[in-house]
Amino acid sequence: MGTPALEVKELKTHFFTKRGVVKAVDGVSFSIEEGETLGIVGESGCGKSITCLSILRLVPKPAGRIVSGEIIMGGENLLSKTEKEMRRVRGKQISMILQEPMTSLNPVFTIGNQVAEPIKLHQNLDRKSVWEKVKEMLSLVKIPSPEVRMREYPHQMSGGMRQRIVGAMTLSCQPQLLIADEPTTALDVTIQAQFLKLLKEIQRDSKLSMIVVTHDFGIVARVCDRVVVMYAGKVVENAPIRDLFNNPKHPYTIALMESLPKMGKKLDRLYSIEGQPPDLREPPPGCLFAPRCPQAKEICRTELPVETVIGDGHTMRCWLT
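Given the sequence above, the corresponding structure tokens read:
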């Protein structure tokens, strides 16, 4: 196996507030290979989006701060780069589809102007070549009549088309890594499937690496090669997609899967995980999931579990091994 396209090592991102320090991301580590799709799953507030924003060094300031860790891409630590150097990385090497793509487009600028912006910023092209590139990108994401659409405004597009236009913007400079933070949240099921299929087709042709953040295990099963499960700012399980679905190990992973409706199985009530995630300003001692875990032992409540290797590429943090 070659050098990973991206490697995150012991990343810690904290928010310093008047009521205390919130450890939103606390020692997260994972890697992604060229052409691989990594899924990040977990409940709201577990640190998925902040992990992705940390990779791009876009953590909200002044409260948010990357405290320690390394983010290695192309042999360089992104955390050691200046802000000017990071502006060259964003959009060109790493692009991101934000959590609300429906509102990512500026209503007062044409589609063409918005898709052209990263091209003008990162590629030394003349005006004619820029607009040819815009047309090419709209065609790539299957926007019909791109020469007409590029002169129109976001309000003239359907939700699915706006999603594709955001995709055209993020892919316009041929990035090595695409981060998609819940990219299908505002779309209906049919448009979701079309957009995910389009992303996989583009990935297959360009060897693009992707990180997909989602709550939906259906999306994970459809597009991901490997999955990272996060809880309370930590990675609790990391596994290839088949291992995760066939042999989930961490009680939290199992609970997430149990909460999904199953075809052909009639239930009076859908399973839910009891309790609430911990207050990250004052996390409990031991395993952070222990207060909600039906299998918790005494050691779980007093000592933080270490990472355990379950199988080839399959790790978890739990005392119940």
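The domain at 1-82+218-262+272-315 is CATH 3.40.50.300 (Rossmann fold). Try to locate this feature in the token string yourself.
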